[in-house]
Amino acid sequence: MTASINFKRDVLPHLIAVLVFLLLTVVYFAPVVFEDKGMAQHDILQFRGGAQEIMEHREKTGEEALWTNSMFGGMPSYLINTRYSGDLSGIIHTVLSLNLPAMAGNIFVTLLCAYILLITLGMRSWLAIVGAIAFAFTSYNIIILEAGHNTKSLTIAYIPMVLAGLLYALRKNLWIGAALFALGLTLNLHFNHLQMTYYMLLLVLVWGIVEVYYAFKNGTIVELLKRGSVLLLAAMLAVGVNFGRLATTAEYTKYSIRGKSELTVPNSGDKTGSGLDREYAFNWSYGIGESITLLIPDFYGGGSSTPLDTDSETYKAFVGMGAPPMQAEQIVSQGMPTYWGPQPMTSGPVYVGAIVCFLFVLGLFIVDRRWTSWLVAGTVLSLVLAWGHHFSAFNYFMFDYFPLYNKFRAVSSALVIAQITMPLLAMLALWRLFRDREIIKDLDKKLLISGGITAGICLLVWMFGGMASFTSAVDVQLQQAQYPVDALRADRESMMKADAFRSFAFIVLAVAVLYFYLKNKLSATIAIAGIGVLVLADLWAVDKRYLNNGDFKEQVITNYFQPTPADKLILEDKDPGKGLSYRVFDATNPFNSARASYFHKSVGGYHGAKLRRFQDVIDRHISQNNLEVLRMLNTRYAITGDPQQPVQRVPGALGNAWFVEEIEKVNTPDAELEALSGFDAGTTAIVDVTKFPVQEDKFNAGNATIKLTTYEPDYLKYEYQAEAPGFVVFSEIYYEAGWQAYLDGQPVDHLRADYILRAMQVPAGKHTIEFRFEPQTYYIGNTVSLISSILLLLVIAGAIAYGFKKKQREEALAV
């Protein structure tokens, strides 16, 4: 007897769910899906600038350039744009996202994974659809897309699938759950936003503690350990699929600003000596009072630049100050600094929804304690971590001592835990209300109390919120610029009160729907549909404040990367050393923009994990206008931003490589960095002899010559001629994990000089020198990824076959 599939029961509800998700996605992102438009996502634009050389090399050769010289003098491409051919999970993602355009695909996958989580719990399809909407349209999911954090978005999107696998494996079928967990974790890791994965693991840790407690209490610890062992193997498989990506990232991290500093007194004020600077990491700390934005979105004024209309007090004030109405309207519509919270700036609040908050509170009363204990604990942990330096006693301890926590910045991102736990507990409450309304004691009373708590908070804010100061740190500068600050504060107050009443209204409507259902005035189907419509209307309207059709434009990438007059002037220089091998310094925005990297090999760029040593040089020397450092980086041109003289020639650029006359020996990294002040880069090389012992310190450079003859991002070939043994410095960034030097085709050692550059002692005569970037971590990791990918596909196929056999046995027993 073969297992039969009842289309109406087993397929149709899920097909309808997918169609609903697709409809919601294409409606929200219609300009992207139907008009091929995009938007100026900051991080995506910077990514395109930094990745241009890598992408051109891939298109030209079909190979991966594992190094790029387009940013910060040169760096590995691992955290920019590297493909791992052994990792086949990207194909699975393409299928799950229906190959929708970026942004649209992200939200569709979030809807799908949240639906899978709720279905594995046993919820009916329509209820799971409502829950998926609550998960996916949380404001943060939309705001990070507007900012261009696409990989962060996708990492978050797969968290519900990971939880679904864990829940199914621990509470239901071990093997099917383990396969789903392996798939979810594989895809979560695939997008390599490890900070989001880290927060997910913290939530799983909290959940695990609760499960262990109940296992001991119920005498099932052996069974838990058994299931946990299988899940551990599934996790190892997921890590294996992503091994190439994880291994190269881990290797690179040691040398980046997220690794340990070699300086005695770390350059950036790092308090731990390892990882990020504490002040930098906690700069974006969510205010304790700001947490109420989970319930009332504009409690702190929304985003740092919010468009206002002609009904605003700020508009009226500008007109009253003598500005023509059209000019005043233009000023306020371009965005005003309405945010008055403690963060330096923000694109918008984390809003999980007024109805979700109400149902979350209801869950505290009616959901089983085994659920509420870890979901509430996870929510509290999320808030505390997001408060950052506002709750320093706990968070500084975490930063200093908790494994890997000091590798991550922008701690406000920890609210991603709450945007998982709160909708989940809310949906569990809603599910229990519909499933067990007859057996829950005083359910109508608990419903009214939960609504009263959340709606009451909103009502109090609406009535008494005007007692706040509504003062922002930017107000001083605004006053100096003669902005109507008092009017702006009035608008901030108005925004707070309007949203407080708005949240109050949504909660009252949701309570009314559920109350009428409990009193048999509405059917379950109508009540679920009503709640779904209210949740969607609530979240959708707030999301549209931050990402709407007007934000999408045609040819965004093409328009952004139109060459400027400065670019055109520089590109006219067809360097005889092949490949435009000199560098450019964009003085207009050197280290927070990768626009120049699209056209040139840049001294600057944009990246959240620069090489630490290069960051040291930026802080100590480049930012102090040390010309010798720019010379040794072969900086030929500077983009000035001056329309009259858009480009300046940097005097004395030293070329791709040069012979020096002497070595200045130092004994510490501090001394090596300090010696870059006041030295002649063309004649002297600075070497830390404790790491690179050299015997000679004087050389006869004489008539020695060296030139670059072949350039590829990860391959360089030089020809030189020297009458005597010499010492060559290469204007290339030293990175010990992968670069191999060859002299006349034979491997030779090279060393570091001038704190960041490569150097080599060379024999007399006419010779060739080659540098090849051949990181074994990448090649080994890719092989492990391929083997693990094949195993994962076999595990998924096995789980599907097992599911059919299980269904067949159940049907046979039913007969």
TrEMBL record:
Keywords: Membrane, Transmembrane, Transmembrane helix. The chain crosses the membrane at residues 12-34, 91-118, 125-145, 151-169, 174-191, 197-216, 228-247, 348-367, 374-398, 410-434, 446-465, 500-518, 525-542, 778-804. The keyword Ribosomal protein does not apply. It holds the Pfam family YfhO. InterPro entries: Uncharacterised_YfhO. This is YfhO family protein. It comes from Pontibacter burrus. The lineage of its organism: Bacteria, Pseudomonadati, Bacteroidota, Cytophagia, Cytophagales.
